[in-house]
Amino acid sequence: MTAEDGTIFQSSEIENRAKQILQKLQEGPHDTNMMPSLPKDAKAQDLFISDEGVAFINFSNTISTNHPGGVLNEIGTIYSVVNSLTYNLPEVKEVKILIGGVEKETLAGHCLLLLPLSMDLSITNIN
To answer: Has residue 6 been placed in a domain?
Structure first.
């Protein structure tokens, strides 16, 4: 996975900064050689960050129903969200992804989503 730089507005509220980062992911990459990490029409509907630093994100069902599938695509989608938030927002330690307001076992049949996930830069070009 290749990272792309973006700019968000400064805000004292962590949730506002997190929502801006998720919006950038939903817009997709500016580089035409890069593939979008989120499926078409996937929207983060709700976001809450606990005092322990866990970001709970509720995505619309389209993150699953419009997902192309496959282990690598699924890992790319999940960790684009997890890494974007944990790398750019030191207050966020882990990310818990919900789909359609409920816990799902997987995004599209492969990668487990039952536990909050921590940053993993091993699949990126970030050192």
So the answer is: no
Number of structural domains in the chain: 1
46 — phi, psi (to 5°)? -140, 155
Q: Is 4 contained in some domain?
A: no
Instruction: Note down the domain range covering 73.
Output: 14-123
Nearest by Cα to 111 from 99, 93, 126:
99
Q: Where are the beta strands (DSSP E) in the chain?
A: 44-49, 54-59, 94-99, 117-118
b/e string for 62-89 if b means 16 or more Cβ within 10 A?
bbbeebeeeeebbbbbbbbbbbbbbeeb
pTM: 0.89
pLDDT digits (tens, 9 = 90+) for 33-56: 878 889 989 999 999 999 999 999
